[in-house]
Write a structure and sequence with these properties.
The protein is mostly beta strands. The chain folds into two domains: 87 residues, Sandwich (Immunoglobulin-like); 45 residues, no CATH class. 0% of the residues lie in helices and 55% in strands. The protein contains no helices and eleven strands. The protein is globular and about 45 Å long. The N and C termini lie far apart (55 Å). The mean pLDDT is 79.
Length: 132
């Protein structure tokens, strides 16, 4: 059974990922229309985690990706897929329970994610720690 999912870059659909379940794995393939020359990574984002599916490969004027991921890593019913440019120097700021979050005024410049099991925000631009 094939499942098709849209993939977003900067809020626009740029292609689709096709998933096929085979035993304990999902095998995926995708083709994307991206104009810029950059290094692009595809992420699977669910309410509880973010998974890096890999780097897109340029071919014949389009970008593609192919790979596999364990079925227990993705909640395929509650997921969306995005592409981010890997060339940015992003900064991960973890959320720590019962601790103030000093970056509240910068939240419009970030995205929510989970890295290495820790929930936090990724800022695409380098930001300095607020004073105070």
């Amino acid at each position: 059974m094939l499942d098709y999912y849209p993939v977003f870059y900067c809020g626009n659909i740029v292609g689709t990922l096709t998933f096929t379940k085979s035993g304990l794995y999902y095998h995926y393939e995708g083709i994307f229309q991206l104009d810029d020359i950059s290094i692009y990574r595809v992420y699977a984002i669910s309410p509880l985690a973010e998974h890096n599916l890999g780097v897109c490969i340029p071919a014949e004027g389009k970008w593609s990706i192919r790979g596999s991921i364990a079925t227990n890593k993705l909640d395929i019913d509650h997921i969306h897929f995005v592409i981010h440019s890997a060339e940015t120097n992003d900064r991960f700021i973890p959320l720590i329970m019962n601790q103030p979050f000093a970056y509240l005024e910068s939240l419009q410049m970030c995205r929510f994610c989970c890295r290495d099991g820790q929930i936090g925000f990724v800022f695409a631009e380098e930001i300095s720690k607020p004073s105070g």
